[in-house]
Amino acid sequence: MERPIGIFDSGVGGISVLREAVRVLPEEKFLFVGDNKNAPYGSKTREEIITCVDSVVEQLLEQNIKALVIACNTATAAAAKELRARLPIPVIGMEPALKPAHLIRKEGQIIVLATPATLRMEKFADLMEKYGEGAVPVPGCGIVECVESGHIDDAEIEGVLHGLLDAPLRNKTDAIVLGCTHYVFVKNALARVAPHVPLVDGNMGTVQQLNRVLKERGIRRAEGKGSYALDTTGDRKVYIPLMERLMNL
Ligand code: DGL
To answer: Residue 96: CB within 6 Å of ligand 1?
Structure first.
């Protein structure tokens, strides 16, 4: 099917999902929107996040998308249920990858790094109920702001990560869950702050789910050359080059 797949995030974090999606589904056409004008979502209320999400989704629906990927844990926790009930196209969301992390846990703890809004939401409480044994939620305050301003591998982000993780890392840690798509871009800095601790993210799982859904519905584009287009609600001169840089990392 020729129609594009819409994919969005509060900002540039979703590029980490788009990158994976382009690799796994090279025949598909993707339209990405970063809601950079309204990022971060993680410090907003559920109602505020829903308002932002609705407006971005509206923008994507106007382009006749055949499926919607919410490349944002925070937006999924706040709005996926309503979007699924209301939209005639499949909606693929994401959640902190606590399930795979739980499988590799030995006797240590699992640090779940996610936005304050994600950690506050009912969806996360349900996840903790199922896979939360030994899990320690840590709000990743300040990381999204660093990534949005391009600080992904320098002293500034490293300082933020030390501030957040030095205390919880005093206990034996089996894995850190990157429960926000922005955090995937600070893996190098994280590896310096938490050496030898496995980092688990949900990006591949999300893309595999997208692939499954497209196949099931018979709307997967199986041949031809795919493409992706980048858009932002913020300043194009600032965010499009940053998205391109992250896409090509
Ligand atoms: N990238 C988003 C996530 O996966 C949210 C970042 C934010 O805007 O706070 O949760």
So the answer is: no
